[in-house]
Design goal:
With 70 residues, this protein is mostly beta strands. Helices cover 0% and strands 56% of the residues. It is built from no helices and six strands.
């Protein structure tokens, strides 16, 4: 079973960088590894889904455009 990646475009324009975000989701296989990518191919973090398939990431992003997918 493979999930289709979800993508979100983030545009950051702030005088306070880096900015901190929490990204979360559901639908992953229980206890599976979830990867977070920026701009499709740059792995920026990993986490493990819980037994219900829920996951979250606490990350920081710098100013600019970011396309995130998990």
């Amino acid at each position: 079973w493979h999930a289709v990646p979800r993508q979100t475009l983030i545009k950051i324009k702030s005088s306070v960088c880096p900015m901190y975000f929490t990204f979360s989701g559901s639908g992953a296989e229980a206890n599976s590894l979830v990867r977070l990518y920026d701009n499709v191919s740059s792995l920026i973090s990993t986490t493990t889904a819980n037994s219900g398939g829920f996951w979250s990431f606490d990350i920081s992003l710098t100013e600019g455009n970011h396309t995130l997918s998990a």
